[in-house]
Amino acid sequence: MWLYPALTTYLLLIGIQTPVHFACIKPGFHLDGQHSLLLSLDSTIPIMTDKKLNTPFYFGGLASCSAAIIVHPLDLTKVRLQNAKGNQTVGMLGTVKNIIRTEGPLKLYAGLSASILRQATYSTARLGGYEKLKQLLLQREKNPSTLQLLMCSTAAGIAGGICGNPGDVINVRMQNDGQLPVHLKRNYKHALDGLLRMAKEEGIASLFRGVGPNINRAILMTSSQCVSYDRFKAFFQQYLNEGIGLHLLSSTLAGLVATTACSPVDVIKTRMMSATGAEGRLSAIGVTMAMYRSEGVLSFFKGWTPSFMRTGPQTIFTFIFLEQFKKWHTIWHQNKENRLIATVKL
């Protein structure tokens, strides 16, 4: 069951066949109409990485936490739209205006502590796990295939989905609290208060509500985000110099793939996590069937625009921060080695 999201993403990746044409980005660079992203995403273009210097495990979580601070208002807007019942068509801007008008501008950062907690657990496990597994794979395979990378992302996604679920539940609840009736508001003071109160009032199991869809989403997100970023970057590295421009282009395209792949699972997960204890035990299949019967197929893509506007910047900033952390880490080690060599010479 957990392999299905990764294989779905694989089909998405190899299904991108639009020819890409460029002006002269690098001297002597030319790409004719016979070349496409399809050739690169499923080819043996080397993933350029430093095999000698391993990336610290926590860099992924640190990069995601940094990005989350920037994009949190968009994440909150996405959650509000996904929790909208029926066929409400307020839209992203309408939702933002409504929050500012009725709750105040600071409410756009409601649940920030839970968002940081979620990224510190969820993203550290999935991004850190993916980088470590990829490093191990590169020790054996010079040019790993897309399927091999998807196996790494699937394992990392499972770990991230489990580790990050409690923080994700609190994050969704704190962001959605503002639009609930007064008698249903939870009024968590911060993420830790929410965790303790949920465990006390609803039981430890409530912290893992929606863990099934969350694991599937984590697999989808890690696969579509990380694997597509690696493939896009490997492709464009043939024509662009290493730097912010390369990272920006690769992460933007990865964000588009990730948003499309994750949207249905994300909506189902959000509905399950925001449910009250009075609604009883909800299953992913039950929520899916109920949404399909009462709201139609398009309900699974509710909040797609703010989701992309959130996932896009989140992906962009995460990978830019991650690449910078890797760069600084490499420079620090190089300077350390240079100082050691200088000391030995003395």
TrEMBL record:
It is a multi-pass membrane protein. It comes from the Eukaryota. Belongs to the mitochondrial carrier (TC 2.A.29) family. Keywords: Membrane, Mitochondrion, Repeat, Signal, Transmembrane, Transmembrane helix, Transport. One of its GO terms (biological process) is transmembrane transport. The keyword Transferase does not apply. It holds the Pfam family Mito_carr. Residues 1-22 form the signal peptide. Solcar repeats lie at residues 51-136, 147-235, 242-328. This is Mitochondrial dicarboxylate carrier. It is found in: Mitochondrion membrane. Gene3D superfamilies: Mitochondrial carrier domain. InterPro entries: MCP (IPR002067), MCP_dom_sf (IPR023395), MCP_transmembrane (IPR018108), Mito_Metabolite_Transporter (IPR050391). GO terms for cellular component: mitochondrial membrane. The keyword Transmembrane helix applies. Its main location: mitochondrion.
